Structure formats: structure tokens, C-alpha cells
Amino acid sequence: MKFQRVPNLASIVIGAYNASRHIEETLDSLIHQTYPHIEIIVVNDGSTDNTDLIIQQWVQKHRNHPVIRENRFVYHQLPYNIGFSGAFTTGYFLARGEFIATQAADDISHPERIEKQVRFLQENTNFCLCGTSIAWFEDGNFEKQYVLDFVKYGYENIAGIYMSGGHCVCHGTLMMRGSLFDLLGGLERYPRGTETVSEDMYFITRYVLTGYSVENLPEILYYYRRYPEQRTQQ
After folding, report:
1. What is the tens place of the pLDDT at every residue in 149-205?
2. What is the sign of the dihedral through the CA atoms of 115, 63, 12 and 74?
3. What are phi and psi of 115, to 5 degrees?
4. What is the pTM of this model?
């Protein structure tokens, strides 16, 4: 029987590995979204720091918020670290929403991010994926932001970039229709020790090459945190 997704619900998936320094701020940016129909899914990817404790304390602090009170917060601990692709794909499988959004455990979403992406997909039924413009900031200095100019706009332009081996949609900003994930699945996993930061690029490329339309909203709705220990900097 086909999986029945919850209409209008936006499932926000976070893959978290040793994210204790930033996960609380990330979750705060999601629980304050202007779009009310959300669920938050955190997959703890075998963290060895106190990520688990920070998340548990955050849940207790916000226990009266509708997302927590109505069981729209899902926390799944993996027994050991399976990597970026495995953690996010696990979260995608747990998502119940008509829409599935991605969020890195150390980044921040604009309060109107989910509302504007849902609206775009509702009003543009020929599109299946939607990213946004993005700014970056140095850890501890959120007030000083810089626009990341690798993000491009217009489906034909975006599709051409991916077809030529390029990359122009930030995975952390991505929202897709849940039905598309049900059809095409999640991120490819690589043998341990051979993972690269390109899993997200290949994921989006596969969707684009299959013929599904993607657009980036021109507004900055996502803030990428830079610090030496993060995965992409490594």
C-alpha cells in the first residue's frame, strides 16, 4: 500500500554528529518558524560528545510548545556513526510530511524559510525541489554575513549546471516533495573511508537528471556557519 503523507506538513530533517556546540541554536531557529505545520526530525549519528544531553534538555525546555506537545518532534539515536548520507536518509524515511526539508545541525534557518518554500511548491506544482539563497557567517559573529554566490537561479540554468557536473543548490536549504523521495530515495552511501562532501551534489544531480524541476528562491533564508572543525572545512 502506498505511504500516505500528511497534507501540508513540512518535515525538517537534521543529521547531527557531535553537534553539541550548535544544535540548540539550530533547533531554536526551527521551532520559531512562521509556518506552523512542521515536524522536526533529529537523527543523532552516533555522537560521542554530549549532543544527546543537549537535545534532551532542549526538548524539556520547550515541552509546552505545540511541536513537542503534539509529538511532532522525532528524535532517533543511531547506535554508531554511519555518516552524512546514512543519517539524512534515515531521517527522510522517518518523515511523514507532504514536504521534506533539510537542515544542517550547525546552521540557522530564517524564520520564514519553511513558509516561503512551502508556498512556492504549492503555487508551482511543476517544481519538485526548492532551495534558497544563502549567506555564511563565522562562528560567533552572526551579525556579519556574506552572500554565497555559488547558488544559481532558473530551472534551465540550474539543470545545465548539474548536467555539466556543477553544483548550485545548497543541500541544507533544500525542500522536496515527499512523494519524490518515495519514488527516488535518498542519498547514496559510500564505503567507510571513501566518503566525500559530494554526496549531496550527487543526490540533487540524480533528481535533476531524472527530469524533476528545481528552483532556488532568491531570498537569503538560510545561514551557513563556518568554523575549522566542520565537515566541509575538513
Report:
1. 899 999 999 999 988 989 999 999 999 999 988 888 766 665 555 455 577 778 888
2. negative
3. -60, -45
4. 0.92
